[in-house]
Structure formats: C-alpha cells, structure tokens
Amino acid sequence: MDIPDDIFTEPDDVAPDTLANLGPLSRLAGIWEGHRGVDINPKADGPEQRAYYERIEMHPIDPQANGPQLFYGLRYHVHVNTPEEDIAFHDQVGYWLWEPATGLVLQTVAIPRGQVAIAAGHAAAGDMRLELKATRGTSEYGICSTTFLEQAFRTDSYTITVDFHDDGSWSYVSDTVLTVRGQSEPFLHRDRNHLVKVGEAGPNPLAEIVREQQKG
Ligand code: HEM
C-alpha cells in the first residue's frame, strides 16, 4: 500500500460525532446480549462443545488520526459465561475501527490468555457482512502469544464473519485455528452467537463536548 509523502499532517475537517460516521460498523454500536452461543474448544480427550451466553458493550471513541489516516471506531468488551459455571468462560477487549477513506476495517483482540491479534478486512457503509482475518507470523494484522501458547496451542489464524440482520440483530462466527502440541491436524476453535440489542450507546466524549458548546 502506498502511503502519502506527508505522514504528519492530520485531516482538519474531522466530524466529531462518531456514531454518525461509523459506516459499516454503525450496526455494532450499543449493548448486546446473546444466549445461543456455541463454542468448540480443545481438550485432552478431543473437541469439547459448550453452550454459552455473552454480553457485549460497544461504545464510540473519539475520531483517531495517524497523521493523514483517520479512523472512526468503537471500544468493546465481551464477557462470556456458561450455565454450568460462575467463573468467566471467555473475556475479550479491543476496538473495532473503520477508515472511511479506504474502507479498511480492523478488530483488535486482547484476551487474558496472554494473546493479542489484529484482524483486517474491507467494507462500506450499508454492507450486511464483515469478514476480517489475522495471521500468525506477520507484523501487519498478526497474532502475538505468550510462550506457553506458542508451544502448546500455537494460534495460526483468526477469522471473524459478522452478519447483520434486517431486524437490527447480528450474528458472528469466529474461527481460531490452533496447532495443538502432539496433534497432527489443525484444531478449529469455533465460536458463534446471535446478538440482540439490550441498550443504546451514548455519544463519544468529543461529540458530547461539542453538543454542550452548541447549547452555549
Ligand atoms: C466467544 C469466544 C470464545 C470462547 C467462548 C472461548 C472459549 C475457550 C475455551 C473454553 C477454551 C478451552 C480452554 C479452557 O477451558 O479455558 C479455549 C481455548 C483457547 N482459546 Fe478460546 N474462546 C473464544 C475465542 C477465542 C479467540 C477469539 C481466541 C484467539 C484469537 C482464542 C484463543 C484460544 C486459545 C489459544 C486456546 C487454547 C488454550 C487452552 O486450551 O488452554 N479463543 N477457548
């Protein structure tokens, strides 16, 4: 990808209201719950399938510039539980970002297993599907893990497909491909769920400040 010669000058006509400028991510803003989660994870005696439920909070952040590059985005927190246990089944934080100028969509993923990933794809406002991928072994849109995981559960790729539905809900399928020590075949660690909105996201801080200033 060619980047501009001037890597420092930031855009000056930045719209402050993130919720109005999220493009293909606008349908993700808000507070969501999904009660029909299905997880397939690696256990010593083979794949384990578990049912789960989750709550996802996606809140708008202020517009973010890297010199001339401008992102609009959401900060998210995913918290997953199962009917059988009180302890968290999975927890995940990060950002969903969209670059209007190029259609680049990013999802950063940080999980408390000592692992981070940055997945990338492209989409336009109104698209009903998002497809993003991260691949181990590259510093652009890669995966980094603690030593134990690198040796015991090497995480080779992560893809997520999000489908938006006409009723305002959405679904995802995330596929994390693992090379488990002592196993010859790659393990497909699949998670999927359907999310329904249970609350609205408020404005990003800058939009709130501008709104107050306009009230005068
Ligand atoms: C809703 C999403 C997810 C759920 C419910 C989930 C759940 C699980 C569960 C139950 C295990 C088996 C180990 C254990 O019992 O703790 C596991 C293992 C693992 N997960 Fe996930 N996971 C999810 C998403 C992800 C994502 C997005 C990644 C990475 C990008 C990931 C990476 C791993 C790795 C590396 C392991 C192997 C570690 C081990 O088995 O000890 N998971 N996951």
Q: Which residues sit in consecutive blocks of at least 5 with pLDDT less than 50?
A: none
The biggest sheet, with number of strands, parallel, antiparallel or mixed sense and barrel status, is: 12 strands, antiparallel
Please state the average pLDDT score: 97
- Compute the CA-based radius of gyration: 19 Å
Quote the distance from N terminus to C terminus: 44 Å
Bound molecules: protoporphyrin IX containing FE
Succession of helices and strands: EEEEEEEEEHEEEH
Number of domains: 1
General form: globular
Structural class: mainly beta
Q: What is the strand content?
A: over 45%
CATH superfamily: Calycin beta-barrel core domain
Number of helices: 2
CATH class: Mainly Beta
The total of beta strands comes to: 12
- What fraction, in percent, of the residue positions are helical? under 10%
CATH topology: Lipocalin
CATH architecture: Beta Barrel
At a glance:
By secondary structure, this protein is mainly beta.
Task: Please explain how this structure is put together.
- This protein has a single domain (18-215), classed as Lipocalin (Beta Barrel), CATH 2.40.128.
- The protein has two helices and twelve strands; from the N terminus they run βββββββββαβββα.
- By secondary structure, it is mainly beta.
- 8% of the residues lie in helices and 54% in strands.
- Strands 1, 2, 3, 4, 5, 6, 7, 8, 9, 10, 11 and 12 form a twelve-stranded antiparallel β-sheet that branches.
- Bound molecules: protoporphyrin IX containing FE.
